[in-house]
Amino acid sequence: MHESGTHVFPSMERVIYGKPAAKALMSEVERLGSQRVFVMASRSLNRGTDEIRKIETALGPRFAGLVDGLAQHTSRQDVVASTRAALDAKADLIVAIGGGSVVDAAKITTVCIEHRITDATGLDDFAVKLNEAGVPQPPTFRGPAVRMIAIPSTLSGGEYNAGCLVTDTGRDLKQTFYHPEMMPVSIILDPAILRHAPENLYLGSGTRAMDHAIEALCSPRGNPLVDAVVLQGLEMMAHWLPRSRANREDAEAAGKCQIASWLCSYGLQSRVPMGASHAIGHVLGGTCHVPHYLCTPVMMPAVLRYNEPVTQDAQRALARALGAPGGSAADAFKALCERLGLPTCLRDVDVGRDQFELVARNTMTEFFIYSNPRKVQTPREVLDILELAV
């Protein structure tokens, strides 16, 4: 499928899996020589479980402080607030414990610490912008000396990525930030933490990891290694996520889903560009306030149908991985989402045709729309995809 290309390895040192988070984290802190560990956590984990207490206890005198209450979609205001707290704590390592929004907030906080950004407008010069050809142009800036460790509480896989999304709430618009050293230095996968995630968030985040895999598989800029890894991840997630839904206390199923998320995200961490599902999903979140974990089940069947004329080989492989050899990949993915009890069209998440024009215009500011395998050059093509998702 790929006759030539380049594979990019990420700026990440370790993935530690199947071990209690507190014990694994302490080993990493000692390995890195960190003395002032600042924790960024989801409010539900901090106030509704003992997971964060376990972390604090394990760290002992190296625990330097904590912020929680980071809202979904990662606002600029939350980022600068966490930066001020981390600077006050003299942090030399950031640990993110939570879902994708917490992880994204920690990534950009490392940059804000490095550049002493404590006002929301200070992020303006660091966002990735599009040139006239629609090619993303990350600004050049010094990478963070204070790195981060991610302990995810969901399956989305955004931690396997050196970029992050931050919402400018004044414009209801998500912006992308990127630096190779925003990648977590280590990722710790503890299946016990997954049981605390609300069901729809947990299941939707599993489909989000599959989104990373599908868009990498369909990308003309993928490579044989990425294809092989993400197909294995897709097959595993399709098998184990329904089983995990049936019994959230099934540690084996939860652990297999974490491994599946890791494999599904291999294209993302290897910088294979995503496509229309990601671009439109970012806008549905930032502009229409659709939870990020519901954007994939709502949009991916439509994106697959739109892209099918130019991704037939990839979609045949995808259908096989989803247990529907010879069938429609779009139908197979939609059937899986229905089996998981997730929404599968825009009206299910209260996005109507009256919002389509704004969604289409804002999507053209997302650089992933320009790397979609089937060309999208104007808002008209975005509207065509949205109509397939009604």
Automatic annotation (TrEMBL):
Keywords: Oxidoreductase. Pfam families: ADH_Fe_C, Fe-ADH. Residues 205-388 form the Fe-containing alcohol dehydrogenase-like C-terminal domain. One of its GO terms (molecular function) is alcohol dehydrogenase (NAD+) activity. The keyword Oxidoreductase applies. Gene3D superfamilies: 3.40.50.1970, Dehydroquinate synthase-like - alpha domain (1.20.1090.10). Residues 14-191 form the Alcohol dehydrogenase iron-type/glycerol dehydrogenase GldA domain. CDD domains: MAR-like (cd08192). InterPro entries: ADH_Fe/GldA, ADH_Fe_C, Alcohol_dehydrogenase_Fe. Belongs to the iron-containing alcohol dehydrogenase family. This is Maleylacetate reductase. It comes from Paraburkholderia pallida.
